[in-house]
Design goal:
232 residues; mainly beta; 4 helices; 12% helix; six-stranded mixed β-barrel
Length: 232
């Protein structure tokens, strides 16, 4: 687990869309803090500070430390709403954590030795990341920033699965308890075929049945009539 991120917050009593819009105009991010067997609390954070911390990948998968006055609370980020067009955070959901209670968290997957894998270096294949993160369950003290997967031995047309991810102490992946169907591939190496101009033109040929057979009348569309132009 990485060093905690400090988030300076303030309590807010006004709620609703109008209150949230006012906070955003003031350069703040509305948020809600819940869980831990305590009532939810509405908070507000400095927008620019949050935006800066979000640039660190670890922010999404580590313990955050919320400070309100002289009080502190360990939390994790559960949801983040962004503006669809602007570089703006609209809302955050934070969950309180307790040292003796397990948490569920999505953590990034880092793939190692991609360039030296036989399927890439010798066979000219390309690496495809089929999953970039995975959900884990653990106590807060065991929460990893990320999980590393070494693909240095992966050959062409081979892939690795969720079950191939090495797990640190105290960490499990709940998907693996759901059977083989949930054991999805996470990375593969294959050759990406380049489509030539001639092949593209071949793909553009009309579907079978669209070109009339010699000596036959073209098929009419359903609902059309030869007398359609004479109506009225």
């Amino acid at each position: 687990m990485a060093d905690d991120f400090d988030l300076i917050a303030e309590f807010r009593d006004d709620i609703g869309k109008g209150a949230s819009r006012r906070l955003r105009r003031e350069g703040k991010v509305p948020a809600i803090l819940y869980g831990g067997g305590r009532p939810p609390r509405n908070l507000a954070f400095d927008h620019n500070r949050v935006l800066q911390q979000l640039e660190n990948e670890s922010f999404y998968s580590t313990v955050l430390n919320v400070k309100v006055g002289d009080k502190e609370q360990a939390v994790i980020l559960k949801d983040l709403q962004r503006h669809p067009a602007k570089r703006q955070i609209l809302h955050m959901d934070l969950q309180r954590i307790l040292e003796d209670e397990e948490i569920r968290m999505n953590v990034p997957i880092h793939f190692l030795n991609e360039a030296t894998a036989p399927g890439v270096k010798q066979a000219g294949g390309k690496v495809s990341h089929l999953m970039t993160d995975v959900e884990v369950v653990c106590l807060p003290r065991y929460l990893p920033e990320y999980l590393e997967v070494d693909i240095g031995n992966l050959d062409l047309d081979e892939m690795l699965y969720i079950s191939d991810i090495p797990l640190p102490e105290g960490v499990s992946i709940p998907a693996l308890a759901q059977g083989d169907e949930a054991n999805q591939p996470i990375v593969s190496i294959h050759v990406i075929k380049e489509v030539t101009v001639e092949e593209e033109e071949g793909l553009a040929v009309a579907a079978p049945g669209a070109v009339p057979v010699a000596g036959e009348e073209p098929a009419q569309e359903e609902g059309s009539s030869d007398d359609e132009s004479n109506e009225g």
